[in-house]
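Q: Could you fold this chain for me?
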Amino acid sequence: MKTEIIPAIIAKNQDELNAAINKVKDFAEVIQLDFMYGKFVDNHSIDFDFSLPDSKCAFEAHLMIKNPLGWIKKNYSKVDTILIHFESYDDKNEILKAILLAKEKKKKAGIVINPEMIDQILVMTVNPGFYGSPFLEETLKKCEEIRRLAPKIQIEVDGGITDLTIRKAAKAGANLFVSGSYILKAENPKAAFLNLKNLILT
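A: Sure. Below is the predicted structure, expressed as C-alpha cells.
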C-alpha cells in the first residue's frame, strides 16, 4: 500500500491559497485543501469561490462544513478526492447521497464510517480547525482498529503530524499522513516534507 505525505492548506483568500500551493506543488503528489465556513468548526478557510493553479498534484477536499452536498455539486471538478465528516449531517441518509454523488462524478470519497463503501478513512488526530493543534495520541487506537477490520483500506491521519508523531501513526496502521503547520510553517517546506517522508521509509 502506497505511503504519502500530504501537505494541508488553510487559506483565508485566493492569494494565500496560491502562495501555499506554490510552496509545496513541486514535491508533493497530493495536497489537502481544508474548507471551513465557521459553523462546523470555529475557523474559516477557502470559504470563497476558489480556483486552483495548474499543477501535477492531486487535490483532496477536506470538507469541515455542514451539508457538503451543495459544495460537491458546485466544486467536484476542481478536486480528486472528497472527504466528508460523519457529523456533517443529522440525517445520515444525506451522507450517503454526498458519497454517491462524489462517486458518480468519478471522485474518490472518504469518511470515517462504512469502510466497505469508501476508498479511504480520515482519522482526525487533533481537534480540527487550526494549524498547530496538539496531537491526540489516543486517536491512534482508531487507526489500529480500522486497520484490523479493513486491512486494505487507505487510512489517512490529519493533525499534529510532525517528526515526533509520524512513526507512531504509521505503526498504528496509517499510510496517508496530512501535515499542515510542520510543512507550511517551516523555514524550508521541502526539507520538512522530505524529513517526514524519510521517517516512514526508514
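A (continued): The chain has one domain: 4-201.
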